[in-house]
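Following up on my earlier thread - several people asked me to post the actual chain instead of describing it. Fair enough. Here it is, all 144 residues.
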Amino acid sequence: MSDLRKYPERPFLAVSAAIVRDGKVLVVRRARHPALNLYTLPGGVVEIGETLADAVRREVREETSLEVEPVALAGHREVIVRDAQDRVERHFIIMCFAARWRSGEPLLNEELDDARWLMPAELSGLQTTEGLAEIVAAALERLA
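Reply from S.P.:
Thanks for posting it. Predicted structure:
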């Protein structure tokens, strides 16, 4: 099976969720490239015909088994990965949402090898995707 997201003809639209529960945010560690071993927010690519809020709920459910309520857009990130020949290997536009935890506990899978509920200040001790702390701070503001 070929990876259609590798060397794309266009950027892919994705979503992620800063899920807050009792003042803590859920971070997950990726078990696959391109973000292997980095802590980040759960999320993934928006499917055709899907609203952003529906995509957030589905992606979080698929990745973590949690049920969440997306509340507001907390920001966005652009991820462009280039190969050794400077060709665009991956290109994602990620819409990051502030979300409230509704139910469930994180379950690990082939995409994730760790999940932690952390206070925002604890993020500084982790190897994370770029801008994670800023997105989490913006999400907390929107949920206040």
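The first strand starts at residue 12 and ends at 21. That should answer part of your original question.
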